[in-house]
Amino acid sequence: MSGESCLHQLQPQTGPIVSVSPVACPKTNTCTYRGVTGNKYVQLNVGGNLYYSTLQVLTRQDTLLRSMFSGKKEVLTDKEGWILIDRCGKHFGLILSYLRDGFVTLPKSRQGIMELLAEAKYYLIQGLIDLCQEDLQDNEEKALCVIPFITSPKEEERLIQGCVRPVVKLLYNRGNNKYSYTSNSDDNLLKNIELFEKLSLSYSGRVLFIKDVIGDEICCWSFYGQKRKLAEVCCTSIVYATEKKQIKVEFPEARIYEETLNALLYETLPVPDNSLLEATRRRNNCCSHSEEEEAVELRERVRRVHVKRYSTYDDRPLGH
What we know:
This protein has 320 residues and is of the alpha/beta class. The chain has ten helices and 14 strands.
């Protein structure tokens, strides 16, 4: 092993090695580290993760590591000569890469970047701190999701036919009523809108959510997969009061969850897998379920399947 650019991480030992005491003990010692040459390789044990790096890399920038390896601060070593650093070693490889090259590819997840930022602050690496903070700020300024509003039938067709993802559309137009609404219709209308927004925030990366404000219905859900309509859930009906007709708006939460899950089956080709198909089947037994109980059950079944199959996505489970 030779050359400054060579960095080797060994397999971590069983269980992390943690030491917070500066007092020498039989297995560890404190000392002032003074390397012989800039190219000398140093053995590092960072929270149980083992690394090799050179003194030239570790002292290149004005950081805590330079203080440790230029003799300004004491370091803790074990009997085999590994220098112990009492920090999580998960992102230490990125720390070394930044010190060596002056740049690094940041973790994909926001959580990973925040973890790396915490380590950069500990080691006082200002350039890496700025890089992480800029990326976090850029992500905050990006919209979580974009929901198109349909302004014409042609636009609706273009959106659905041009999208490879499943599509969920909510037609919402309270002004289409010909009669008065029942007492709880406004509350149910808001519940439909709130559920649409919750689903769109959780699944905007996998499903195209669109709103229709020009259709003839008052509240209606439509579900599309592979560019064809799969199902429709109309939430309005006409009821007859004593002397007049009224419009009733319902909130069929369980049915909406079920059809959304069915649409997700068409996210992959050629056919949905058995685990997702099983999750969408309603239980056929002698026990009757209320709409609320059925919705709770579907949310839990969806959550289990989502966690099992889509654990790599940075999304929240459906219904949360």
